[in-house]
Amino acid sequence: xxxxxxxxxxxxxxxxxxxxxxxxxxxxxxxxxxxxxxxxxxxxxxxxxxxxxxxxxxxxxxxxxxxxxxxxxxxxxxxxxxxxxxxxxxxxxxxxxxxxxxxxxxxxxxxxxxxxxxxxxxx
Length: 123
Prior knowledge:
- The chain is an all-beta fold.
- It is built from no helices and eleven strands.
- Strands 2, 4, 5, 6, 9, 10 and 11 form a seven-stranded mixed β-sheet that branches. Strands 1-3-8-7 form a four-stranded antiparallel β-sheet, with no helix packed on it.
- The model has no long low-confidence stretch (mean pLDDT about 95).
């Protein structure tokens, strides 16, 4: 059983910073891409940032220059450093990872999601 556990959300004033963490655990053999998505009320879930296992990154235009995604492969953990936060960044943030994990009989690749962490930016 693979789990992604997020931490670091909260309430912050506009212009402030937060750092999200997401640790993957379980019968993991390998992790490919990891990323962060967010979903605001009444909106579709959208990609915020992603990072490949070799370190290349991809960002949504709305967060370029403000957010930084990184990962620690030894800890199976991905981070999102969020700076210069704006009220428009308010959303539930979800961690995502594409993981090769062992089941009872085999190993297979699957997309896994965290439970979500609330980020609220006040104006």
